[in-house]
Amino acid sequence: MTITRLSIFPLPGALLFPGMHLPLHIFEPRYRAMISDAMARDRRIGMVQPRPALIADGLPRPERPPLFDIGCVGKIAEFEASEDGRYNLILEGLSLFRIVRELDVTTAFRQVEAELLPAPEEPEVLSLSRRAALESESRAFADAQGYAVDWDAVTRLDDASLVNGIAQIAPFDVAAKQAMLEAEGIEDRAELIIQLMQFFGRHDGEDSVTLQ
Questions:
Q1: pLDDT tens-digit profile of 182-211?
Q2: Bigger pLDDT: 114 or 200?
Q3: Is 131 exposed, middle or buried (0-12, 13-18, 19+ CB in 10 A)?
Q4: How far is it, in rounded angstroms, from Cα 144 to Cα 79?
Q5: What is the number of H-type helices and E-type strands within the chain?
Q6: Percent helix, strand, coil in the chain (nearest 5)?
Q7: What sign does the dihedral 6-7-10-14 (CA atoms) show?
Q8: Which of 34, 89, 108, 152 has the fewest CB atoms within 10 Å, i.e. is most exposed?
Q9: Confidence (pLDDT) at 165
Q10: 159: part of which helix (H) or strand (E)?
Q11: Angle, in degrees to the nearest 10, between helices 128-145 and 185-202
Q12: Which of 101, 107, 164 is nearest to 134 (CA)?
């Protein structure tokens, strides 16, 4: 078991997977401080989703919302500072992690002690039928949502990049996104994506599931 200390960026709807990339625009002072700290250390931050707050309308949301247990360590692969102090950066996913405990710190940004989760020993692959079903359902979902997709480029992706890339950009709600992150391997994640696309695609109007 590998335990590490992480500064975390709680951002609903944002997933990162090992080997994938996530662009971020940082403008809040506390997270600008977090990025400055990370750049002076090991360039790592932890991406994790806050749990949806069950709060009555009109009441302020908590400053420190509870967090999901599973997130992903990202390394700042590209970094650009603007004149007004904002940052544009690209995170490269390194490893999934499980939060062990949140630390009592004086920094404006939150920090946790986390267990790094082991990566698969061999490259993950989909069955041919699952890959075909995922591509087919993705085309139908993209067409229904009016998305423009370079399908030639999609078909050239390896299985892990395809599955994790869809999971990162799919416009599902926080709970659905977290379920995809926590799925056991890309076969299960692909099946979950297919089910979510079918479910979201069948719901519209007032009874629809909220999309990000």
A1: 999 999 999 999 999 998 866 554 443 433
A2: 114
A3: middle
A4: 35
A5: 6, 6
A6: 35, 25, 40
A7: negative
A8: 152
A9: 93
A10: helix 159-169
A11: 30
A12: 164
3-state SS class at 51? coil
Q: Is 3 left (phi over 0), alpha (psi -120 to 50) or beta?
A: beta
Answer yes or no: are the C-beta atoms of 38 and 150 closer than 8 Å: no
Rounded distance between C-alpha atoms, residue 6 and residue 117, angstroms: 14
Contact (Cβ atoms closer than 8 angstroms) between residue 176 and residue 189: no
Encode pLDDT of 6-36 as tens digits.
999 999 999 999 999 999 999 999 999 999 9
Tokens of 170: 């799919």
| Dihedral (CA of 172, 90, 122, 42) sign | negative
Q: Is residue 172 exposed (0-12), middle (13-18) or buried (19+ Cβ within 10 Å)?
A: buried
Q: What is the mean pLDDT of residues 154-163?
A: 93
Written as six digits, the tokens of 76 are: 């700042």
Residue 20: which H helix or E strand, with range? none
> How does the average pLDDT of the chain come out, rounded?
89
Are the C-beta atoms of residues 137 and 198 closer than 8 Å to each other?
yes
Residue 99 main-chain phi, psi, to 5 deg: -70, 125
The one-letter amino acid code at 195 reads: Q
Q: What is the pLDDT of residues 59-96, one digit of tens each?
A: 556 678 899 999 999 999 999 999 898 999 999 999 99
